[in-house]
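At this stage, I put together one protein's amino acid sequence and its backbone structure tokens, which the following lines show:
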Amino acid sequence: MKAKIEVMLKPGVFDPQGKVIMNALHHLDYHTVTDVRAAKLFYVELDEKDPAAAKKLLEKMSDELFANPVIENFHIEIVS
């Protein structure tokens, strides 16, 4: 089974990487951009047949390793 895990800073947490990208876009004359938030994307393959069990395992992994639950949220998508 394959899954995608997207990790982003929680709303209200300053995103310095997003700010740098937004400033670069403004320097390139993309002045209509009002905000950029950077994210991390992980692709994970599991030897698991049950989607519910896989999601539970992926949530545990995300809480323990992929994301810092104090400042980041994550979203899991089972893709196959």
Q: What stands out?
A: Helices lie at 16-27, 51-66. The first strand starts at residue 2 and ends at 9. The beta strands are 2-9, 39-45, 72-78. The chain has one domain: 2-78.
